[in-house]
Amino acid sequence: MSPSPRIGSVPYLNAKPLIYGLEKEVVLEHPSRLAQRLAAREIDTGLVPVVEVFRRPGYVIVDDIAIACCGPVYSVILAHRGPLQSLREVVVDASSSTSALLLKVLLQKRFGLKLRYVTESLADKRSNADAQMLIGDQAIRFHQAHGDWQILDLGQAWSDWTRMPFVFAVWAVHADYPELPILVKKLAAARTAGAAHIEDIIAREQGGDAAFRRRYFGQNVYFNLGPREKDAMRLFRQLLIELGELKAPYELNFVK
User: Fold this and answer.
1) How far apart are CA 170 and CA 189, in angstroms?
2) Which domains does the chain carry?
3) 89, 173, 242, 256: which has the fewest Cβ within 10 Å?
4) Taking CA 67 as the corner, what is the angle to CA 28 and CA 247, rounded to the nearest 5 degrees?
């Protein structure tokens, strides 16, 4: 009998519908650590920041499943006190390279700003900086508690600029994983179950506002990876190449 696949996910609300029913099997890590563990083969698949599959040709991407948005995402933000054009420095959360690079693309390509980026671990603590990028549940909490700050929602900023969705995370699997078809079916089944049990996910989350969680799943994030999402991934990758953040691209491989 083959061993069970080693599965890793981020611990955020937006991932819960993709690991429904798998909670006892899944290792939870912040995005950057999850990417490191997948690269080191400590896990077989991970719900990793999309930049990871741009950097490593040894992965295949599970088709039809992603964490994406088309408009405001709410949980990936730049919070700043002064006008955007006056910023000189921004603290970025070390937890996610994709969100940090999306911020850089938007600030440099869309707004024409070249800032100094300071990386800090904001997953468990707050920064005192006047401009800071936050992701996941900590971004949600900040958004709700600090109405006096200006907020640039990175999902909204991207879609306003490109008229496309944005893909934050995908399931990446080592291409040589021997039970790949079985693993893909397992992840697809979890996504289907999560979609069917959104109210259960909303109800069992501790703290916060159930009405907000319902809006978040209904209006801010979705979990499809279709042709438009793939085109958006390729556009983001091309913009990163233009900024010198990535080398020349290779073909992205999707598996069903």
Assistant:
1) 15
2) 7-68+165-255 (3.40.190.10), 76-162 (3.40.190.10)
3) 256
4) 90
